[in-house]
Write a structure and sequence with these properties.
Layout: E1 11-18, E2 24-31, H1 32-41, E3 44-46, E4 52-54, H2 67-75
Antiparallel strand pairs: 1-2, 3-4
Length: about 80
């Protein structure tokens, strides 16, 4: 088993895994600089957990986060601004 170090990137949760009510089941962490591009152009983003999807929703406070993304995000070193 090998360990891969992810590059320092700003991320924030974005939704996938839609339910019948068109609300995502969980939100994933994706590169912050790719969110607007995906929302406008319809291009796909890659979440920290590896899920690939177009950005269609923004998370609200308290929204559920993908457990795999959350674990990876918490393991990242803080960026230059301490985030």
């Amino acid at each position: 088993m090998s360990t891969v170090t992810l590059p320092d990137v700003e991320t924030r949760p974005e939704g996938t895994d839609s339910t019948d009510s068109d609300e995502p089941k969980v939100f994933h962490y994706v590169r912050k600089d790719k969110i607007a591009e995906s929302a406008v152009m319809g291009s796909h983003v890659v979440a920290l957990c590896g899920e690939v999807f177009p950005v269609t929703r923004s998370p609200k406070p308290g929204s559920p986060v993908c457990p795999a993304c959350k674990e990876i995000y918490q393991g990242l070193k803080p960026g230059p601004s301490g985030e």
